[in-house]
Each structure stands twice: as structure tokens, then as C-alpha cells.
Specification:
Elements: E1 5-11, H1 15-26, E2 34-39, H2 46-52, E3 56-59, H3 67-77, E4 82-86, E5 91-92, H4 97-107, E6 111-119, H5 126-135, E7 141-143, H6 148-151, E8 162-166, H7 167-172, H8 184-194, E9 198-208, H9 215-231, H10 233-239, H11 243-259, H12 266-284, H13 291-297
Length: about 300
């Protein structure tokens, strides 16, 4: 089956990475019909770099960016049958990344979405490396609605940092939710699974993508995860609480540090994970907090307006 592929990249001050991303897209073995960049008010050279590569750029005011809504707007402009969503800092590792990512969508009609393996950037800290290795293992898999009984909340793990969707199926579930704090990919995957479709983690399709979060950034990130789970109650009711997975992650991180003799990082790791747990709990109870405090604890300040 032949399908047109559109690559969609939301950008904001992405100059440090966007050149590498577009250069690797130019080198892909897969025929890309178009690359569509939605820029939300960059003040650096992001737009000029994109124009130099000949990609299509749609500019929107920064205040109008929305994780779900902006991606939906891009989908309306896209000509492709398959939509590949990238973030501005997710760099394909080789020329076959997109070909491998898209292939399952062409071979199996039950697969509605695929996502790639994320490898840490060269400057990733040990904790950042572990997070990528833990969430993105070497072995790929397919997960469907019935798998929630085995994998619980991990059934709807996905990342729009590098994911491919069949546009017609995405339209069938109403695309991504508008005005979400974040996690538009998780919410949409849950709907896709409920509609009888499956997700495939394609571990052979790889991108470099990682973040060296500080203590404060990690606290804010987990507060936002708690808020998302409080707002999207059906995620927890259908797929269970993610707390069990959190415990396994902590044990895995300690083991990772031990094996690499990073003993000095073990106590900060434990402290960080305790703070993340507290932040998640606060996020789940965000409705009883003063709005100003919730906004301070969040990574996405603008959303609270």
C-alpha cells in the first residue's frame, strides 16, 4: 500500500536542534511527501533554518500553542495519509528511522499508531540515560485494549516526540484533545485502544531524545502528571494506577547506578524520587490548592490562565 507521509514538527526556539533534525529527515530512505513546521513565535533562527531546508512553515502566536490543538491544526493542513509527529529536539539516528516507524502501519490495519525508541543524547546525565533505557527497551511490542489487564497503565505509554499515526483512524477518535495540560498522546492512545486498534513500539526505529531535568523541573513534571491523571479519570479507571510502575522504576534506577558505580548519585536519586512522588500526589489534588500555587508547581504556567 502506498501512502503519503507528512512529518509535523511543532517548534519554539529550536535552533540548537532543528538543523540536525531536518538534515536527518533529508537523508531518510522513506519518501516524505512534506515536512510541516508549526512555529509558535520563535525569536531565534528556527524559522530561517526551516525555510533554508525548504520545509513548509506555519507561524502562530506563542499564546495560541496547545499540545493537542496545535497538532490537530497541523493535521488539518497536512496532505499525508500518515502523520509522523516529531519534536524539535528528536533527531533520527539513521536514514531508516522513519521507514521502520511507518512500515507497521502499512502492513497491519489493526495498528493505528507506532512510536520510536528514544536514545539519550551524548550529553545525557546518568539519570537521564536510565530514564530512556527504562522506558524504551531493546525489544519491541504490540499492545491492544485487552493488554491493560497485564500491563496496566504502561499499556498506554507512548511519546509524540516520534510517533506515526494513520490519519483516518486519528480522525475517527476526534484527533487529540484540545486544551490539555500535556499528555495529548496518552489520552488519544487510550481512545484508539478502546476503539479496537493497537499500538506498536518499534524499537528498531530510533531517535536521539533526552532531557537533563533538574530537581525542580522533575518536581514540576510529576506535578503535571498528577494533574493530568486527576483531570482524565478514565485513564486511571480503565488502565489502573501508575504507582506500581513508579516503584519498579525507582528500584531499576538504583540498580542502574550501582552497576555503573555511580554511588554518589544514589542518595540524590532517592531524594528526587521522593519529591516526584509528593509532587504527583499534589497534582492529583490540584483542585484544593490555590491556583497561584498550582501554577507555580507546574511546568506549563500558561495553561493555568
Amino acid at each position: 500500500m502506498q501512502c503519503l507521509v507528512t512529518v509535523i514538527i511543532p517548534t519554539f526556539n529550536g535552533e540548537p536542534w532543528i538543523e540536525d533534525v531536518l538534515t536527518m529527515l533529508d537523508a531518510q530512505s522513506l519518501s516524505i511527501h512534506e515536512v510541516l513546521v508549526i512555529d509558535s513565535g520563535s525569536t531565534d533562527q528556527t524559522v530561517s533554518v526551516c525555510q533554508r531546508h525548504g520545509v513548509r512553515v506555519i507561524s502562530i502566536p506563542n499564546k495560541e500553542f496547545d499540545h493537542g490543538g496545535t497538532r490537530n491544526m497541523a493535521a488539518m493542513h497536512a496532505q499525508g495519509d500518515i502523520l509522523v509527529y516529531l519534536t524539535q529536539d528528536a533527531v533520527p539516528t539513521d536514514a531508516s528511522t522513519l521507514e521502520k516507524l511507518v512500515a507497521p502501519l502499512l502492513l497491519d490495519e489493526s495498528i493505528a499508531v507506532t512510536y520510536a525508541r528514544q536514545l539519550p543524547h551524548f550529553d545525557a546525565t546518568p539519570l537521564s540515560k536510565h530514564l530512556r533505557f527504562y522506558n524504551y527497551p531493546e525489544q519491541g511490542y504490540i499492545r491492544c485494549w485487552q493488554d491493560r489487564k497485564v500491563y496496566g497503565f504502561k499499556t498506554i505509554f507512548i511519546s509524540n516526540s516520534c510517533a506515526a499515526y494513520r490519519k483516518d483512524v486519528l480522525a475517527e477518535v476526534g484527533f487529540f484533545p484540545d486544551n490539555v495540560l500535556f499528555g495529548e498522546d496518552t489520552c488519544t492512545l487510550a481512545k484508539l485502544l478502546q476503539h479496537g486498534f493497537c499500538v506498536q513500539y518499534v524499537s528498531d526505529a530510533k531517535v536521539y531524545h533526552s532531557h537533563n531535568y533538574t530537581f525542580v523541573q522533575d518536581v514540576k513534571r510529576y506535578f503535571d502528571i498528577g494533574v493530568l491523571h486527576a483531570l482524565e479519570q478514565t485513564l486511571v479507571s480503565n488502565f489502573g494506577s501508575p504507582t506500581g510502575a513508579g516503584k519498579r522504576f525507582v528500584l531499576s534506577e538504583i540498580s542502574f547506578l550501582f552497576k555503573r558505580k555511580k554511588y554518589i548519585l544514589i542518595f540524590p536519586s532517592l531524594l528526587r524520587n521522593i519529591l516526584k512522588y509528593v509532587a504527583y500526589g499534589l497534582g492529583r489534588r490540584y483542585s484544593v490548592l490555590p491556583r497561584s500555587l498550582a501554577r507555580t508547581l507546574s511546568m506549563h504556567h500558561r495553561w493555568w490562565k
